[in-house]
Sequence to fold (426 residues):
Amino acid sequence: MKHLFLTSSVGIKGVGESIRRRLGHDRPLKTAFIITPVEGDSDQDDLSWVQEDRDGLNNNGFATFDYTIADKSHDQIKQDLTGIDVLYISGGNEFYLKEKANENNFGDIIHDLIAQGVIYIGTSAGSIIAGSNMSALQQLSDLEPLKQPIDTTGFGLVDFTILPHWGSKDFRDRWLSEASFNYMFKEKTPLIALNNYQYIEVLGDKSTIIDVRNES
Amino acid sequence: MTQAYLASQFYVVGDSIGSKISSDKKAKTVFITTPIKYKVFKESELDWHYKNRETLKRNGFITEDYDITGKTEQDLLVDLARYTVMYVEGGNPFSTLKIAQTNNFANYVRTRINEGMIYISESAGSVLAGADIAANSRPGKSAQEYGLTDTTGIGLINAVFMPHWGLESKRKDYSESKYPQTYHEDFPYIFLPNNQYLEVEDAVFKIISV
Fold:
């Protein structure tokens, strides 16, 4: 059964711990840490958040190894990801990840892995791209280096779009700009705004919102 | 077990909701009219309301109207005991919550739903079902204007329900009031277009598109 955890940031204290409690694993889970969205992020100066997210996993029984899908073939990725327990998609640039995924049908690999029982964990861009439609978010991302036209479809694992880091001071100007609002206010896809302390667990077609501040 | 169907616009999704509920339950439906009692509408403003009623009827819901205004907690216990479905209409969540706080309506609903009553709603009724209603304020229809210091909703879902997302006629309300009001690190916020509804079972939900 499809099992996803869609977070704003798995590095926030309590999020990794909460996911661990829900999974209840008693051995380290082999976790592919897909760093491709980070490679497409326009801000490469401070990537400390990537390490915080990695720590959030490693400290909670996920044995991560970094992996990029960029410039790899479909078969190569399938082979490299054989035997993983968890597929973790990092934050960064979701549109860049989709561009790279289109070059090797990584989306199909994700669907196959999930069907085999691999758990999907997303942070930020990794949670956004789990949805079917990212068009509402075009104003928030750096699209300049990407090929045109931009592919705004996600991997279609859920039928809503996550708005991560909601309420955060760091993202205020991006989310609340007039341009962003005008792009987002469309009668298409439901949007779910999650702050850094919340995540969605998806089991099959059912979703639960968890706020780790309520779990002490 | 909580069972609820929270819509933005009931008549758009009502056929789908109606198909999920048994005829015997639909035969005992109370239609909570309180959200539309906050003002006198012109006939021409009530098209959506009549469409909701027609959609309920077409789908086998046999409804009786009920206004919680002026009712006591004991009245609710007696008057609503025989119903197996509660439909809460759109309108004004703030005036409704103000009245609901006088007779502990939220607690009554939670208790009955735990006993098996089904909750169906649109717009204001769905806002009321969420964790909190404050972010849905806009000039002329706000928590402040009704003197609400506690804006806690019924809590059938642990998120704030933001209805009619993307509807052009709601753009100004959203851009100037509702959207920026959600930008806090408090609740999750669900922005739902009119062609979708939430199916809620206990703490778990599905988003259904029609």
